Amino acid sequence: MVVYPDVDARLSDDEVDRIFRALADATRRDIVQRTLIEDASISDLAERYDMSFAAVQKHITVLEGAGLVTKHRSGRMRHIRANAQALRKAQGLLQTYERIWQHRLAQLDALLAEE
Amino acid sequence: MVVYPDVDARLSDDEVDRIFRALADATRRDIVQRTLIEDASISDLAERYDMSFAAVQKHITVLEGAGLVTKHRSGRMRHIRANAQALRKAQGLLQTYERIWQHRLAQLDALLAEE
DNA sequence: CTAATATGCAACTTAATGGTTGTATATCCG
DNA sequence: CGGATATACAACCATTAAGTTGCATATTAG
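Output (structure tokens, whole complex):
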């Protein structure tokens, strides 16, 4: 298993808020998924969704604010690319919760074994 | 590694929206964490946060709507308990993203190896 | 140069969120 | 029974979110 050090180190509440908030929208999740596979321009993305160009731009701004994507200039275009690191931060938090849960189960088991 | 079958099977956009939305608030994440460790009544939880009882009630309603916690009646009290299954759904999605990312990296490696 | 393309951004509307207070109801204790 | 406790829920308010249109700017193509 590959270990990513410090995946959830010094994560502020605001930062986590922004990451989960950004992921709480199907269009934005789709943008993340597509740009994980391959970079895309804003126009590329805007074509795919049933909303205005400006609306897609706003979604990208939200994702960028959460660190989930980055923009790279290339002439008059901006290439959007997902940032796996930010995704790992969210995953790291959920794994922490999972561990807490497993710990609770282990304690319950221990309690039952005592009796 | 323990495998949870169907962790992200038939997850509707709305369901995922609600899970991530619910996690996008520090108070709600704290409620999840506390009730993963141990059940708590609404009053127990309300004591801990600097907001009204009703506000905490609302946060719990949001978590319940996302399936992240369940309520269990006990006399005049309601015990709140986190539901690890819903957390795993979110984790499953993020793992899917991670796999997409790894696949992209593998393809880039392959491309470089060819040259 | 000019037209077309790609993006940025402001102003506006509508709906959802997160908080409040107030009131009602149910349960427990003495 | 009657008071205290635990919860539910409605109404309201302020802020943010998500969409729109319209206009400005930068770059590329011919």
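The longest helix of chain A spans residues 84-114.
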